[in-house]
Amino acid sequence: MVEHTLYSIGQYLPEIVITATLCIIIVADLFIKKESNTTGWILIAGMLIAGYFTILQSGRAESVFYDMVAVDPFAVFFKSVLVLAGLFIVLFSMNSLELESYKSRIGEYYMLIAGMMLGMMMMVGSTNLLLMFLALEVTSICSYVLVGFTKRSIRSSESSIKYIIYGAVSSGVMLYGISLLIGVTAATDIYAINEAINAGIDQTLILNLAVLMIIVGFGFKIAVVPFHFWAPDVYEGAPVTIAALLAVASKIAAFGMMVRFFSVTFIDSAGFTSAGVWSAIDGIHWDVLLGGMAALAMIVGNLTALMQDNIKRMLAYSSIAHAGYILMGLVILTSEGLTAILIYLFIYLFMNLGAFYVAMLFMNKAGTESIEEYKGLGFRAPLAAIALTIFLVSLTGIPPTGGLIAKLYIFGAAVSAGWIWLVVIAGITTVISLFYYIRVVRNMFFYKPEDNTPQLTFDLMSKVILIALLVPTLLLGIYFAPLLEFARNSISMIGF
Amino acid sequence: MELLLAQSVIEPGLTHFLVVSAILFSLGVMAVLSRRNTIMVLMGVELILNSANINFIAFSRFTELSLDGQMIALFVIIIAAAEAAVALAIVLNVYNRFKTINLDDISLLKG
């Protein structure tokens, strides 16, 4: 017993490092000069070490802490992607003008990001319903505070209160669902729940209700229709860096947890077939339900984005639509579908972070978030404007960018699984999405800047970060074989 | 019939607890949906979380779940406290900006 616990601690190093980083930041914040970025660099160092330990775990497949946590290729993939996203967010934060006037409290900011990283890394690894819920709440509670971090801004305050109310209610509903699921199966870890479901459950109605309630919690986290109402308001009000963190990292973590929950809990004892997973419980057709949610997310997200003027709000609706595309992979739930999800999430990380980053740079220098006021920015800041164009083109899914590869694999998997109507909707909404992405590009390049407006100049660090996001976005559109290989190897989960 | 009724009052079973928790959950959802005062909405959230707690403890008493249910309930109590603390801080900040905590009046962000 002691041996197993000690052994498990050795397998839990990434999370332990992040926790230690969190503590170090709190203590360091007391001693160091308030105006420096030292706490940010501490967090970067901590995340690099955590990333190193995560990579050391690759290839392992074991269940530690008495079936509480899984250390498998799937978790390693998600943890490394999350660390990557976290690194970019901290670098963004160091350049953010918005956070400049809160410099005296910046230690708290990085401490909360460390807390969120911890929660998200636990989300993708945990295999016990209690631990899943705890991880979800750790992530959520840190993000509630972060959204309202710029507390003198009236919009930030409003978005934080909206976020906490939606978040608390949906996690409450999810907890009630978890309590019912635990009750009818008399087990807390997902392997035992899977056994109980395969052995047959008498109360099918309660089981269906429980899963429905759990979907509410997941749906909130990934911001998919009909649980998306918070996303536009929160993204618009929150600091850009935090909006990017929510749109990318927390969505990736939630997808990781959702995929693991569904595929391990409901896999049929007969084996790994698409029908087997979803027919484990009678009653609701889960694949059709999730497919409907995905279709609605694509339609609502893309159509509403057409009418937005604020770039963050537009990106919020676009991220709702992207959640719909990614959810298609979960509907299929074959190995092809899961590979497509991983590829999509990896590429989505770069292109969406890039779009948010350029929005932040324009906010810093030109002082505007309005797409109307982007007129002429293509001539005043060519590099940033061209980068934004490439990110938006990639988000649409036009060659030769990574976005095309992401969409291609998801659509291909859906077609081969026979979800033609879903692919048709996805295709049509992709075309619609072109309009609002291109509107930004048109505003930037097709209008001359007004006379005597100065050129925007960016410092070296901003340019380096921009290139670091731009290169993978372009490169993955041409040379994606390693990513494909990585994703194929990473879909193996314990118990799946 | 009367005997059955008397017996069920003397010896409450799993169903009784589940019914109480379902009622509590519905009251919580109703408070969230109908109240406009932020504090009242947060009270509704507390009702929802505690209804789940009743479920956990009832299941751990009446099924073979054993002590796991009790342990989860303890964790949920802690989570609820943390969430309430953060929520109240945010409400205080919103009150300082808006001079109101009525949810209908806190609506600058639209579209």
Description of the molecule:
The complex is a heterodimer of chains A (496) and B (111). By secondary structure, chain A is mainly α. Chain A has 2 domains: 1-265, no CATH class; 285-496, no CATH class. Helices cover 75% and strands 1% of the residues of chain A. Chain A contains 21 helices and 2 strands. Chain A has helices spanning 2-10, 13-31, 38-56, 73-95, 106-125, 129-147, 154-185, 190-199, 204-222, 230-237, 240-265, 274-278, 286-305, 311-332, 335-365, 377-380, 382-396, 402-416, 420-445, 460-478, 481-490, and strands spanning 62-64, 69-71. Chain B has 111 residues and is mostly helical. Chain B has one domain: Helix Hairpins. Chain B contains 4 helices and no strands. Chain B is elongated, with a radius of gyration of 19 Å. The mean pLDDT of chain B is 90. Chains A and B meet through helix 6, helix 7 and helix 10 of A and helix 2, helix 3 and helix 4 of B.
Features:
heterodimer, A: 496 residues, mainly alpha, 2 domains, 2 strands, 75% helix, B: 111 residues, Helix Hairpins, 4 helices, 77% helix
What is the fold's blueprint, element by element?
The complex is a heterodimer of chains A (about 500) and B (about 110).
Chain A: H1 2-10, H2 13-31, H3 38-56, E1 62-64, E2 69-71, H4 73-95, H5 106-125, H6 129-147, H7 154-185, H8 190-199, H9 204-222, H10 230-237, H11 240-265, H12 274-278, H13 286-305, H14 311-332, H15 335-365, H16 377-380, H17 382-396, H18 402-416, H19 420-445, H20 460-478, H21 481-490
Antiparallel strand pairs in A: 1-2
Chain B: H1 2-10, H2 14-34, H3 38-62, H4 68-98
